[in-house]
Amino acid sequence: xxxxxxxSISELSQEFDVTTRSIRFYEDQGLLKPRxxxxxxxxxxxxxxxxxxxxxxxRMGFTLAETKxxxxxxxxxxxxxxxxxxxMLEILExxxxxxEQQKNDIAQAEMEMDTAEARCREALAELQxxxxxxxxxxxxxxxxxxxx
Amino acid sequence: xxxxxxxSISELSQEFDVTTRSIRFYEDQGLLKPRxxxxxxxxxxxxxxxxxxxxxxxRMGFTLAETKxxxxxxxxxxxxxxxxxxxMLEILExxxxxxEQQKNDIAQAEMEMDTAEARCREALAELQxxxxxxxxxxxxxxxxxxxx
DNA sequence: GATAAAGTTTACGTAAACGTAAAGTGGTTT
DNA sequence: AAACCACTTTACGTTTACGTAAACTTTATC
Lengths: 148, 148
What we know:
The structure is a homodimer. Chain A has two domains: about 1-60, Multidrug-efflux Transporter Regulator, Chain: A, Domain 2, CATH 1.10.1660; about 80-135. Chain A is built from six helices and two strands; from the N terminus they run ααββαααα. Chain A has helices at about 10-15, 20-30, 45-60, 65-80, 80-135, 140-145; strands spanning about 35, 40. In chain A, α4 (about 65-80) packs antiparallel against α5. The interface of A and B includes residues 89, 96 and 116 of A. Chain A binds a DNA duplex (30 and 30 nucleotides) through α2.
């Protein structure tokens, strides 16, 4: 049960909601290496995984070049050369630092969004109060409201 | 104690490690609005905060246009219009969803990096073992090694 | 008052990541 | 066989986010 399927370019395009143009571009840049039947591309499950990684990388702010570097490095790493292995470990460390930074950024952003939301709700509540007052004491002029 | 300082373009440039070109560009795009003394820019603490937000936004994968949209919206929100307030709350919700996605992406990436690192270390251990064997049984040919 | 240091505008250049025709290939459905 | 579909290549266009000179003021320093 090894899921030995293959995929057409439009299948992947639909599944991941990217244009075929993008997929071809990723191949052009060396990030995907589909087989060919004639001139038609045939994507393996490995290609599919890589596409998923590419897109996630993008969401995380990686450039295609960075992602490609990781792919290439990982391929080289599999050959078992010691220098490559050590370099891979280094790069993994660097990425972890980057992820830590991103996590901090996200936490910060969440806090600020909390206070922003709170202020919005306060302001809305204020407006509701004003409305009620207007309901009770109608026809207050705009200028008078503004002066509060 | 309101920290009422101002900043020159190069001060900010150095503090946040961005080029003056970038800072001028951000102004050009309407993200910063420094005062002027003659034609020289004078940045307030508010500008400084915004610059920080711009850079964090970039690290989080936001475009300048998106960040500007948030700035503008927040400014409008402060005027207290109800429609603006509700729109702001909507956008905040959307951003939260985006942050959740990013957190998932990061968690996934961390897991994969864990297994990648483990494999690297295994491979390295294997190499060390091979080296020892070579030390004990020297002059093994490359072909023989490859056949294992 | 010359000269350097830091600031400015204007404007063309560039890399990344595709978009968008245009024109052709290969299979299959009617 | 005509028409249609999915796929292809080639190639120029576009947006974003600056880089990089060039030529010019303004301010500080010797």
